[in-house]
């Protein structure tokens, strides 16, 4: 079994070369943008890791593949998950999850001699949680291997990075991105596809998410604000309405990346004197994008801040 995502060829070569060697490294970091298929790779690679000749493997969830990700936000959301309903996740992986994992690791694997632990994403662990995991990475139980999925490897503790081997998952080029969207989202307008590809920055999964979130109206408003300004705040009000009163975090993050794509698209068609403002706005949006996954931003204020950054590109035509 293997994942068939674009750009995974080198990662598979490195993984299988290590798997066939005499000594398999116990810790791996799967590093790359969100949406390039790292989770699919981790699950497929874990199945190859725990499989043993002559030993029947479990279909579906495997007892020797332990997958840790964001838990439900609270008890009410946990009940929704139990009932098979959509639920809201917590922003971080919790230290209690790591402690329960460590209790599980005191037992032997269920089927064979190996066990895989996948943490997705490992960069959403706060320092106490990461330090708890570090203890297991420093002294891994016999036959236990860790696959840490990370979208922002710089957020991992240096002590964790130093104990793991890194598999890099590169961005997908625009031609392949167009092919993916043509296959997965044929109904999307050409302008929306182009914006999704620009905003996704080499991540097919992110591009598909952009199209599915139906951000066409938001894209048009952002382009109008960046071009004409918004002196009476009317366009920013429409932008907030298009986002909705309680947009999901995924939509908020997508709006930030879409605004960044709008700024990037203007870089090649403006006078050189306007480039510093574009660079500053782009940098501000990048900072927002880095903070938004874990910060408790008010959605309404966040979209107004995005609109104000874009309005600033229109110079004197926009109110401060």
From TrEMBL:
GO terms for biological process: DNA-templated DNA replication. Pfam families: DNA_pol3_delta2. GO terms for cellular component: DNA polymerase III complex. Residues 24-173 form the AAA+ ATPase domain. This is DNA polymerase III subunit delta. It comes from Aurantiacibacter aquimixticola.
């Amino acid at each position: 079994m293997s994942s068939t995502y674009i750009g995974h060829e080198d990662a598979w070569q490195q993984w299988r070369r290590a798997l066939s060697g005499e000594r398999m490294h116990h810790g791996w970091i799967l590093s790359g943008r969100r949406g390039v298929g790292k989770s699919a790779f981790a699950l497929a690679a874990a199945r190859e890791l725990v499989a043993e000749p002559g030993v029947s493997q479990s279909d579906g969830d495997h007892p020797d593949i332990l997958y840790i990700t964001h838990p439900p936000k609270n008890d009410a959301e946990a009940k929704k998950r139990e009932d098979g309903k959509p639920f809201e996740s917590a922003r971080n992986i919790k230290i209690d999850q790591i402690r329960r994992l460590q209790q599980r690791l005191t037992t032997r694997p269920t089927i064979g001699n190996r066990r895989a632990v996948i943490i997705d994403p490992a960069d959403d662990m706060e320092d106490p949680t990461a330090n708890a995991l570090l203890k297991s990475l420093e002294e891994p139980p016999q036959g236990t291997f860790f696959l840490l999925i990370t979208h922002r490897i710089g957020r991992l503790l240096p002590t964790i990075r130093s104990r793991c081997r890194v598999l890099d998952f590169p961005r997908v080029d625009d031609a392949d991105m167009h092919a993916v969207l043509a296959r997965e989202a044929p109904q999307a307008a050409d302008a929306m596809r182009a914006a999704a590809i620009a905003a996704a920055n080499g991540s097919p999964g992110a591009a598909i998410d952009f199209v599915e979130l139906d951000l066409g109206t938001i894209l048009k408003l952002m382009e109008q604000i960046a071009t004409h300004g918004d002196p009476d705040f009317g366009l920013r009000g429409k932008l907030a309405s298009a986002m909705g009163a309680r947009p999901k975090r995924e939509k908020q993050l997508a709006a930030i990346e879409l605004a960044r794509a709008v700024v990037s698209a203007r870089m090649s068609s403006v006078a050189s004197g306007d480039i510093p403002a574009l660079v500053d706005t782009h940098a501000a949006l990048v900072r927002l994008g880095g903070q938004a996954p874990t910060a408790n931003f008010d959605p309404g204020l966040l979209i107004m801040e995005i609109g104000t950054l874009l309005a600033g590109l229109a110079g004197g035509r926009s109110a401060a």
